[in-house]
Amino acid sequence: MKRTKQINESKELIFEAFMQLLNEKSEEDITLTEIAEVAGVGRMTIYRHFREKEDILLYKVQQYYEVGKRQLHDKSLTLLDLLAFKYELIKESPNIEYFYKNNKLQSLFDTFRAIYSADIKKIFPSSIDAYTVAFIISGMDAITNLWLQNGKNEDPKQMAQLTAQIIKRQLA
């Protein structure tokens, strides 16, 4: 338990240091050594937890998702719930702009897919094959990308309803 707490504290220090540095300069100009210095940890601590700088931001996205998912699991999860949660998470996450501006949305979408794929499989009928599920998830990513390109003007609940309607039409 103590080790887990220490790991989480290190990750938070690293994340906070990276965010501080991102406010001062671009991601390309930030080194892992700088992050370690600002965080007050050794470089090896960063490497122990993250492969690259992008992973530091993905860590926070995963954290937001896990907290929200625990809240969602208090009730029976529907496709609309999961989609609304995803769009809300994207709208509220302070790091989304970084992924969008730096053409790293695929990394973000891959992370989302990894953490919600089990939930997606539970929502769809077992008769739907893996290819169809992959097609649906790719479509969700494309819609999310378009929403980001358009400035996230629509409300997350509106986007969830729109996406759910499109998916249901595809499954009909």
Query: What is the overall pLDDT average?
Result: 82
The CA-CA distance between the termini, in Å, is 48 Å
Strand content: under 5%
- SSE succession: HHHHHHHHH
- So what's the overall shape? globular
Characterize the largest beta sheet: strand count, sense, and whether it forms a barrel. Answer: none
Number of domains: 2
Number of helices: 9
Return Rg in Å: 18 Å
- As an assembly, this protein is single chain
Number of strands: 0
Brief account:
This protein is an all-alpha fold.
Ordered list of secondary-structure elements with their pairings:
Layout: H1 2-24, H2 32-39, H3 43-49, H4 53-72, H5 79-92, H6 96-101, H7 105-123, H8 130-149, H9 156-171
Task: Please tell me about this protein's structure.
The protein is an all-alpha fold and 172 residues long. It folds into 2 domains: 2-50, Arc Repressor Mutant, subunit A (Orthogonal Bundle), CATH 1.10.10; 54-171. Helices cover 77% and strands 0% of the residues. The chain has 9 helices and no strands. The chain has helices spanning 2-24, 32-39, 43-49, 53-72, 79-92, 96-101, 105-123, 130-149, 156-171. Helix 4 packs parallel to helix 7 (105-123). The longest helix is centred in the first third of the chain and has 23 residues, at 2-24. The radius of gyration is 18 Å and the shape is globular. The protein starts with a helix and ends with a helix. The model has no long low-confidence stretch (mean pLDDT 82).
